[in-house]
Specification:
The complex is a heterodimer of chains A (455) and B (420).
Chain A lengths: L3 H20 L1 H21 L2 H34 L2 H35 L6 H30 L4 E4 L2 E4 L2 H5 L2 H31 L6 H36 L1 H8 L9 E8 L4 E8 L2 H5 L23 H30 L7 H9 L3 H15 L4 E3 L3 E2 L9 H32 L11 H8 L1
Helix pairs in contact in A: 1-3, 1-13, 1-14, 2-3, 2-5, 2-7, 3-4, 3-14, 4-5, 5-7, 7-8, 7-12, 7-13, 8-9, 8-11, 9-11, 11-13
Chain B lengths: L1 H32 L2 H12 L2 H18 L1 H10 L1 H23 L4 H28 L3 E2 L2 E2 L9 H25 L5 H29 L9 H24 L7 H21 L2 E3 L3 E2 H4 L3 H28 L31 H22 L10 H26 L7 H6 L1
Antiparallel strand pairs in B: 1-2, 3-4
The chains are: A mainly alpha (455), B mainly alpha (420).
């Protein structure tokens, strides 16, 4: 048994590296789809606006994609570095799934990203469009495999245990596990939504700041972003609700923790709790009465939410992280739903591009999608504790034989590096946005000069 | 037998990694010695391919995990610090490269970061290699050694050898890709690095029996023949590289160096197989069960031709000498035909207040509907509700988008003309 310090430090390291990694796919998966779409439209219509959009968002996409890839590489190796026992036990299942992700998705992205980012002017436009679609397809495929692997850890099926290892019995059961059916659509919608939100926020900034040259691009992107949000947000709430219900059936302690109840006698919905883990009660809680019952589909208000005291103490997840992770995700999602709803109303009232307060709100909430996704993953991962493979392998038993010194050094290194990287990346985004898109000559202004450019 | 296929896949990916990322790590290290104005070009040469090149290391890692979890679980904790160091270096290298390529200013700093991180990543890889060859201390598939076991004399020599090899590959790649070096200059650098690499290879080879706890069975005829064949082929490839540096065709030195590297690896495998972690952890003991092997080998094997094909295609698209890409300037955008502003709606007053209250209630109702709060009343309410909401949003989007396009919202503004 490794010391508890090594387990704790390794958990922190994995959490930090995972959250840092997730920030980038949260944007780049959706952005890759946007880039593929606008480039295709450009090829088909010849409208230069779409090329301008492509070139602008490509700059933000490229750096985010690169950081996402290298941060993902770290996680691939961390499984073996910090979690050697886990790696050995689940290698025959999770190792193979991740292996398939690398060969089918990762390579697809990596093989075509060079063409997509550096091919302009070197390869034919149609090939560029194909490369952009391949990158987008790769990112979506990657999301699929990763969600399959993680969902299996949430609700393992289709295996048999032998020699301390999980051996695959039925690959279809493993890859298309029940948790995957709920969590994959939830995550797919989440990454598309968070990217659309990001695009919408930055586009709104150009309109708020009255950047005349960027206006056509900003309006075009805002229209796309809010259109996507208006359609996807209702679906996402529905799918998210389904995922929570599924977790209530398959991983009850997680639901008990994220609803913030100890005793199972509350029909309200907790907005805020201050849990006391040792005593098994909340020192403080703020609730909306009857709402918990309503969310559990009982409008009469008689259904109580199950509490964490039902679970034995050694199998309880941490209520702090699980509850507030869930609140971060859910409250942000409700705000996003309201905003998307307002966007649809404004659109119907023809005031979308001329509503300063709405646009300012969009600018301020630009990172909302990333916050919601981070919160969601905190629920998924800390709510599964103390298990790494739910009900089968405890996190404390999964760690490598390492010294505290080693893990402390690597954790400090990652924290230092990632904080710096986030700062650099944020500054890069701000600079790129402030610099604005490449100037677009207008049709009627000095036609001679613009023709000379083309020639 | 399937475990040998997994082992072969690991080796194949690793060989491709060493050849491909070897040259871009080498170019990175060489950029440290290059004149500042050349550094950008070096960076751009790597930028088009580093992502794909690095993927081979990830593939090698995950196939090792899936196919030989016993090795993965023992080896990685044993090389914890150097491997973490390599990952951090790889991140910094990617950052330096992408920012160098994308950011406007600070070229010098990013270029130095790219070069320095390339060197650090190579050294860490050498230390990892050294640890693997000298055999980490393990019992029952669990690493039992100390935190600094990797810091051995043999490990340091491996790091030096790998630096020399990658520098050599980088120089060969630069001869293929750039016009910047004069031929005598290329010849001098390339041959110097070739001598250094060969020297390191001989030293490492002679010290290996002392450093590696397993007994090399070179008295087995097949093993001996394969080993000496590989060594001989590596020597021939080295001679071709020697001849090719500074002579046309420009691709020859790189091809020769790549062949040399692969032959060197094959020689090592001929010497050690089936042992993966010295002294005695073999492919059989470390392998995952049959079901996983089968899925892995079939899945990865079937995808491999496609992966190789499109990598080759991407690689061909950037073949030949590096030239600065020419991004055509954007063609003009039609100016807004009918600059119309939104219809003026009187704000304030009782009507506005009532409308807003109604909209808020409607919004809350819509959220409750989407969340399937009414699922207890009837099952169909949720799905029908989100279909109605999503459908309305879709219709509003399409209609609004068309109207905005007709109104010229996506064309250049009249103001833009006056200010430009």
């Amino acid at each position: 048994m490794a010391s508890t310090t090594v387990v704790e430090l390794s958990r922190w390291q994995f959490a930090i590296t995972a959250i840092f990694h997730m920030t980038f796919p949260a944007l780049t998966v959706g952005l890759s789809v946007l880039l593929a779409v606008v480039y295709t439209v450009h090829v088909r219509t010849g409208n230069p606006l779409y090329l301008q959009i492509f070139r602008f968002w490509k700059k933000i996409f490229a750096v985010g994609f690169g950081l996402g890839v290298v941060a993902g590489t770290v996680m691939t190796f961390e499984f073996g570095l910090n979690w050697g026992v886990y790696a050995h036990a689940v290698g025959p299942v999770i190792g193979v799934t991740i292996g398939m992700e690398v060969i089918t998705a990762f390579f697809l992205e990596a093989g075509f990203i060079g063409l997509m980012l550096y091919g302009d002017g070197r390869i034919r436009p149609r090939t560029m469009a194909l490369a952009s679609w391949m990158v987008a397809f790769g990112t979506l495929l990657s999301t699929t495999w990763i969600l399959s692997a993680n969902s299996w850890m949430q609700d393992p099926v289709g295996y048999e245990k032998a020699d301390g290892q999980f051996h695959a019995r039925d690959w279809i059961d493993i890859l298309l596990n029940p948790a995957f059916a709920h969590r994959f659509p939830h995550m797919l919608l989440a990454v598309l939504i968070s990217a659309a939100w990001f695009v919408g926020g930055i586009s709104a900034w150009y309109l708020v700041k009255k950047r005349v040259h960027a206006r056509p691009m900003a309006r075009r992107c805002l229209s796309i972003a809010l259109g996507v949000l208006g359609v996807l947000m209702p679906i996402q709430l529905y799918v998210g609700d389904g995922t929570a219900v599924f977790m209530g059936q398959h991983q009850l302690p997680k639901l008990e923790a994220f609803e913030g109840n100890w005793k199972s006698d509350n029909n309200g919905y907790n907005l805020l709790v201050v849990p006391d883990t040792d005593k098994g009660e909340n020192r403080l809680h703020v609730e909306i009465p009857y709402l918990g019952s309503a969310i559990a589909q009982d409008l009469s208000g008689r259904t109580n939410t199950p509490g964490l005291l039902r679970t034995p103490p050694e199998e309880r997840p941490n209520m702090w992280t699980t509850f507030y992770g869930f609140r971060a995700m859910y409250f942000t999602a409700l705000l996003m739903f309201g905003t998307a709803f307002a966007g649809v109303v404004l659109r119907m009232r023809r005031r979308l591009f001329d509503s300063p307060r709405f646009l300012k709100w969009l600018v301020w909430t630009t990172p909302a999608g990333i916050i919601a996704i981070t919160g969601g993953w905190i629920v998924a991962e800390t709510g599964r504790q103390p298990w790494v493979v739910y009900g089968q392998l405890r996190t404390a038993d999964a760690v490598s034989q390492l010294s505290v010194l080693e893990v402390a050094v690597s954790l400090a290194g990652f924290v230092l590096l990632y904080v710096t990287l986030l700062a650099i990346w944020a500054r890069y985004i701000v600079r790129t946005v402030k610099a604005g898109p490449e100037a677009l000559p207008t049709g009627s202004a000095a036609p001679d000069a613009s023709e000379a450019h083309v020639a | 037998m399937l475990e040998y296929a997994s082992y072969a896949l690991v080796l194949f990916s690793l060989a491709l990694y060493v050849v491909l990322d070897g040259y871009d790590l080498g170019v990175g290290m060489l950029s440290l010695a290059a004149r500042p104005e050349r550094r950008r070009e070096y960076g751009e040469i790597v930028a088009t391919a580093w992502d794909a090149n690095e993927s081979w290391l990830i593939l090698a890692g995950v196939v090792l995990w899936a196919g030989l979890p016993g090795v993965y679980a023992v080896l990685l904790p044993a090389v914890y610090l150097p491997l973490i160091g390599m990952l951090i270096a790889v991140i910094l290298r990617g950052l330096g490269l992408e920012m160098h390529s994308a950011a406007g200013g600070y070229r010098r700093g990013w270029a130095l970061l790219f070069g320095g991180a390339s060197l650090a990543a190579t050294v860490c890889q050498g230390l990892v290699l050294g640890t693997v060859l000298t055999g980490p201390h393990q019992r029952d598939g669990v690493f039992q050694g100390g935190a600094f076991d990797w810091l051995s004399r043999y490990g340091v020599l491996c790091a030096l050898g790998l630096v020399a090899l990658y520098l050599l590959a980088g120089a060969a790649w630069l001869q293929d890709k750039t016009e910047g070096w004069s031929r005598p200059e290329v010849r001098r650098t390339g041959r110097g690095l070739l001598v250094a690499t060969a020297l390191m290879a001989v030293v490492l080879g002679l010290l290996l029996p002392g450093a590696d706890p397993q007994r090399f069975a070179l008295d087995q005829p097949l093993r001996a023949v394969l080993f000496w064949l590989a060594v001989g082929a590596a020597a021939v490839a080295g001679a071709v590289a020697w001849y090719g540096f500074g002579r046309r065709p420009d691709w020859r030195p790189f091809a020769a160096v790549a062949t040399m590297t692969v032959c060197g690896m094959l020689g090592l495998v001929a010497l050690t197989a089936p042992v993966v972690v010295p002294p005695a952890l073999t492919v059989h003991q470390a392998a995952s069960p049959h079901s996983s092997q089968l899925f892995l080998v079939l899945g990865v094997g079937l995808c491999m031709p496609f992966v190789l094909a499109y990598n080759l295609y991407a690689w061909r698209s950037f073949r030949g000498k590096y030239t600065d890409p020419v991004e055509r300037p954007l063609p003009p955008l039609p100016a807004r035909a009918h600059p119309s502003t939104a219809p003026a709606v009187p704000e304030g007053g009782a009507r506005t207040v009532v409308r807003r209250i109604l909209l808020v209630v409607l919004g809350i109702l819509a959220a409750a509907l989407s969340q399937d709060v009414f699922g207890g009343v009837a099952d169909w309410i949720g799905p029908v509700g989100i279909t109605v909401l999503g459908g309305t949003a879709l219709a509003a989007w399409i209609a609004g988008d068309r109207r905005d396009r007709r109104a010229g919202y996506f064309d250049a503004d009249a103001e833009a003309e006056s200010t430009s």
